[in-house]
Amino acid sequence: MLAVGLSVPLFASLVAMLRHVQANQQPKTFSISPDVAVGLSVVEGVLVHRATDGTIRAFSARCTHLGCHIDRIIDDEAVCPCHGSRYRADGSVAAGPASRPLASLRLDPDPASGGWIARVT
Known about the structure:
Rieske Iron-sulfur Protein
């Protein structure tokens, strides 16, 4: 019974350390092409939502549950391959185990490409 009691804090510490390491490994800027499709897309480590009116928003593609890289869109939701968390186009959680929304990224025009530069804020 003592081993179980000690393993919970150890596991929590390992999860916190993993999140810290992954956050520090994430690039600080991302290029988004001017021809990114309307709807929800995963583009070079960024979750991008381009509305039909041309507005664009960007979010980190790191799941807020354990930091896995979100790599696919299913039924207009971004899906984490690790534990199945799902996110809506506005970055909010549609289904857990994640409980926090995706981090918003700042978008700046990229005059060189005509697209955008997404920046971690």
